[in-house]
Write a structure and sequence with these properties.
alpha+beta; 4-stranded antiparallel beta sheet; 10 helices; 18 strands; binds zinc ion; Amidohydrolase; signal; Peptidase_M20_dimer; Peptidase_M20
């Protein structure tokens, strides 16, 4: 009798436990609405006080204080200015991570917002204007809001949530070997506790309230390319007495463009190879000794990328040699391919639809040739990165100012959706059997 009673009590407790585990979407909605005034205030504060990559000390302080006030375990200085917050639910379970990036850009803001930036920072030895021209202010604020909502539901959570606030997403600053994601990983961001999966989002031009991503290759791998040509200086009137490095530079640009267009299958692996700078010479009638070119390579397939790099290096060597010049070719990866785990991508679509509403989620959007270092987290654990449409109200997304523009001004009305997608993703992930 006693035993039977104990068993039925256990059954009741288990039933209560599993009923508690499911936090319904309406409660999430209500909790998100409660934190919105704070989220908007944080966003505006970050916006007004932007900081360049690995200089996000003020932002990191605001984030760490908030996470501590919620009772999270907080680690600071993970990858210089990175912050990790760990929320442990009332019961054990899975571990999942959410990530936001923190850095701003050397851009003179021209949004006309009341809380526009007048901040400056040091970039390549110069004092430059700094602005949140990529929307990372929104990302920090949304993730802080999600941490608050989830901390308030701690008693109903089985499992652990790791909040990753990452510096220096916009590439390793000059002189730094690693960018923010790679450095945080090297310093143990994904250890102790080790998440099973990671999710992140980015505000981009798009219909406000829309969410879009794709499985597998979503955002391109990005390489920086540097080409150094050496010729022989001569008078502009006597080109035959030297080696005309200007003519060689012109051939090199042609070679890069043609190789990319003529040797890569554009239907399977979109590829962009852009030469963006050419520096050579100081005077109109002197052919200089040397020229430097730099550019960016965007690819979706590592083997194709490696083959194209090898072909480009060989071709550029041959071009230089034909004119009596020499060429040095250097490639450095800025970001790996953002590769969305196919299984998790499929799982996530209904969760995001629950957050954004029917018809607002496109889980098969075309790939994009911009890059994100979220990709490095995805090389360690499976993850999904998605975009949040955030064009200003009444503005055609096709013509709204893009990320990195001095006029980029993401729509604050999408902040609740970003908080909600973070929260629902975590809750539903931890509830997975
Ligand atoms: Zn950016
Ligand atoms: Zn960005």
């Amino acid at each position: 009798m006693r035993r039977l009673f104990a068993a039925s009590t256990m059954a009741l407790l288990l039933a209560a436990g599993s009923a508690q585990a499911q936090v319904d979407t309406a409660s999430v909605d209500a909790a998100v609405q409660r934190v919105m005034p704070e989220v908007v205030a944080w966003r505006r504060d970050f916006h007004q006080h932007p900081e360049l990559g690995f200089a996000e000390t003020r932002s990191a302080g605001v984030i760490a204080d908030h996470l501590r006030s919620l009772g999270l375990e907080v680690r600071t200085g993970v990858g210089k200015t990175g912050v990790i917050g760990v929320l442990r639910g009332a019961r054990p379970g899975r571990t999942v991570a959410l990530r936001a990036d923190m850095d701003a850009l050397p851009v003179q803001e021209a949004t006309g917002l009341d809380f526009a930036s007048s901040a400056t920072g040091t970039y390549m030895g110069n004092i430059v204007p700094v602005a949140h021209a990529c929307g990372h202010d929104m990302h920090m604020a949304m993730l802080m809001g999600a941490a608050e909502v989830l901390a308030g539901m701690k008693d109903r959570i089985a499992g652990t949530v790791v909040f990753v606030f990452q510096p220096a997403e916009e590439g390793a600053p000059p002189g730094e070997p690693k960018g923010g994601a790679a450095l945080m990983i090297a310093e143990g961001a994904l250890n102790d506790p080790k998440p099973e999966a990671i999710f992140g989002l980015h505000v981009v031009p798009g219909r406000p309230g829309s969410v879009f991503y794709r499985p597998e290759g979503f955002m391109a791998a990005s390489d920086r390319v540097d080409i150094r040509l050496k010729g022989k200086q001569t008078h502009g009137a006597w080109p035959w007495r030297g080696v005309d490095v200007i003519a060689v530079a012109g051939q090199v640009v042609e070679t890069v463009n043609t190789l990319t267009a003529r040797t890569v299958d554009p239907t399977t692996t979109p590829t962009v190879f852009t030469i963006a700078t050419i520096n050579a010479g100081v005077r109109y009638n002197i052919i200089p000794d040397s020229a430097t070119l730099s550019g960016t390579l965007r690819t979706f397939d590592t083997a194709q990328r490696d083959a194209l790099v090898a072909r480009a290096e060989t071709a550029i060597d041959h071009v230089a040699e034909a004119y009596g010049a020499t060429a040095e070719f250097g490639v450095k990866q800025n970001a790996a391919l953002v590769f969305n785990d196919p299984g998790l991508s499929a799982w996530l679509a209904p969760v995001l639809t629950d957050a954004a509403g029917e018809g607002n989620v496109n889980a098969a959007t075309p790939p994009t040739t911009v890059a994100e270092d979220f990709s490095y987290f995805q090389q360690v654990i499976p993850g999904v990165f998605y975009h949040l449409g955030a064009s200003p109200d009444g503005v055609d997304p096709a013509t709204s100012a893009p990320n990195h523009s001095p006029e980029f001004s993401p729509n604050e009305n999408v902040l609740p959706l970003g908080v909600k997608t973070h929260v629902l993703t975590v809750l539903r992930f931890l509830e997975r059997s």
